[in-house]
Specification:
Largest sheet: 8 strands, mixed
Bound molecules: N,N,N-trimethyl-histidine
Strand content: 15-25%
Helix content: 25-40%
Radius of gyration: 20 Å
Distance between the termini: 52 Å
């Protein structure tokens, strides 16, 4: 329950609202709003607390989850080609500070990278990543930016003697946006990267059985990742979701070209939050994530609408995943 004490603690914690003007943190605020609405749909950004980030790292190692290893393979194979496009003294702006494995492939191949600017909503994760990278690249100016990159982000001005500024958005995280949101995000990125480029990974449409397996792994890690949203609410907001009373559901919605993840109530039940009581009917769902899949032409057309000029595209041999070089005009 959100007792007055708890609300006070939330307000003082790092989850405290900055501009929303509400009394409670963004997660509590959004979850209450979501539960009061039908159909119920919450942003997947709330998956990634410490436990959720740990589970996501496990997902990336699963035999069924091909995107991470496939994209790493493409980047490793094309690193020198990509580094040549980046040119000397480039600045790399990463949207979301990931595991750092991917950006290391770029930095190792680049000619005197000048600066690395990871943008991430989680300040702790960001500081850890930044420190780890600084130690390995002494000449590199590592400048973490703690911000929500799904909102408009102001970047520091380019360094005096630096080369072009290249955005890096791997992992097909672009697939979490609706098509309209993706266009807004890309238009913003094109503006921030003027005269440079964006290197972006996009998961491809493919046999629905392959997609289905990637989000319904045999070990149940993806199910645990999905259910962690409720576990997180229990930890942070004092809700009493009983995880066993919700089922993981992930399926490919072919007409909309996306994987959808839901948490489906196994029975009729009530959940208390912030002094309100919310009911789930048997079979009622909380929509937790969309993961859009793309064709090469579809991604390029989206990029054009957002103001980019598409350059080279690299795929793996099985055409599972794509990495695109998009020029941002001056
Ligand atoms: C990090 C958004 C790219 O959509 O595949 C993995 C998240 N969800 N398994 C994806 C995720 C379930 C992942 N992204």
């Amino acid at each position: 329950m959100l007792t007055p004490d708890r609300i006070g603690a939330l307000a003082r914690s790092s989850e405290a609202p900055r501009e929303s003007g509400s009394l409670v943190g963004p997660f509590a605020h959004d979850l209450m709003r979501v539960l009061a609405n039908r159909p119920r749909s919450i942003s997947p950004k709330y998956f990634y607390d410490v436990e959720g980030s740990r589970l996501f790292d496990l997902i990336c190692e699963l035999p069924e989850y091909y995107p991470t290893r496939t994209e790493l393979g493409i980047l490793a194979q094309r690193a020198s080609e990509i580094a040549a496009l980046m040119g000397p003294r480039a600045e790399v702006v990463e949207f979301g500070a990931g595991s750092l494995r991917k950006v290391r492939l770029l930095l190792d191949a680049m000619d005197s990278p000048a600066r690395y600017l990871p943008i991430d909503i989680s300040g702790d994760h960001l500081q850890q990543s930044a420190a780890a990278l600084k130690a390995d690249y002494p000449g590199l100016d590592v400048r973490p930016v703690a911000a929500d990159y799904t909102q408009h982000v102001e970047l520091p001005p380019r360094m005096a003697a630096s080369g072009q500024r290249v955005g890096f958005f791997p992992g097909s995280t672009i697939g979490n946006f609706t098509p309209d949101e993706a266009e807004v995000f890309l238009r913003d990125a094109a503006r921030a990267l003027r005269g440079g480029a964006l290197l972006i990974g996009a998961d491809l449409v493919k046999d629905p059985a392959v997609l289905h397996a990637a989000y319904n792994d045999a070990q149940g890690v993806t199910a645990a990742f999905n259910l962690n949203l409720l576990a997180r609410a229990n930890r942070e907001l004092g809700t009493r979701f009983v995880l066993e009373q919700f089922a993981h559901s992930a399926f490919y919605n072919a007409p909309l070209q996306r994987i959808e993840m839901h948490l489906v109530s196994r029975q009729r039940q009530k959940i208390a939050l912030g002094g309100e009581c919310y009911e789930f009917e048997e079979g009622e769902a909380l929509h937790t994530e969309n993961s859009y899949k793309f064709t090469v032409d579809g991604l390029r057309a989206l990029a054009v609408r957002a103001g980019f000029t598409p350059g080279p595209v690299w795929l793996d041999e099985q055409k599972l995943f794509s990495v695109h070089w998009l020029h941002a005009p001056r």
